[in-house]
User: What shape does this take?
Amino acid sequence: MIYTITANPSIDYVLQLKTLTNGEVNRTTSDVKLPGGKGINVSRILKELDIDSTALGFVGGATGEMFKNLLAEHHLKTDFTNVAEDTRINVKINATEQDEETEINGTGPAISTSEKELFINQLKSVVSGDVVIMSGSLPRQLPETFYLDIAKMIQGQGADFIIDTTGQALLDTLPLHPLVVKPNNHELADLFKTEFSSDKEIIDHAKKLLDNGAKHVLVSMAGDGALLVTKDHTYKANAPKGTVINSVGAGDSMIAGFAGTFMKTNDPIESFHIGAACGSATAFSQDIAIKEKIDQVYKEINITELS
Assistant: This one.
């Protein structure tokens, strides 16, 4: 089983309007409410790939009920921990004529010690062969080490884990051997306080993450495609042609495609191929990609082994 953890899920209230003028009344041309959260995005892609997952996280209040109702439309398996305070609302404003996106993200509920313990107890059923994917921001009162502490617990139970994070938080997880880490090329450069001028430099630094414990390293490079670096091989995926509409969920989709496929096949190359297709398909969609779009983009991606 794959478990996705979204500690601080949200209702994403997405507003479309022609122009945004500060200090004045603005009227939308359309709006939509979506169940948000990086782990939720992962579970939604896994559903499109017909791979089972269970979505975990903290949900509360009237907005929490609305969140669960929105999510029910996607027929995901969930096991949320109910909390006293409200699930947050994030507002995303797209001003089409200005080609600008503005986001206002809520802070989310404060999590009590007893609510945290209820959540942790759910993870005691995770066993060898399972994968736990952790991503997204933390709600108030959870320690900064929350995901790292869970990773240690998961490792002790014989399961694999993935943490979608950057910076020192990423480096701290490497000795626990995450199944895959996925920085983009800029995040990887920041991690080592450098700049890259070639794929070789990116690959050399990705290998440092392997040396420190990661099992696989995915590096997304926007219009330059993506890299998969393993202990013995490096592969590159081209960037398919298309108009980028939604960059927010692309990384989540890539992780979902890789992790879900790898769990089924243990084949890193095919997992990379499907992961790259999922990421690009979501980037070319207004919402998380559907299976038809993923299959279409898959045919446009070629995987090349680099010497």
Observations:
- Residues 250-265 form the longest helix (16 residues).
- The chain has a mean pLDDT of 94.
- The chain is about 35% helix and 25% strand.
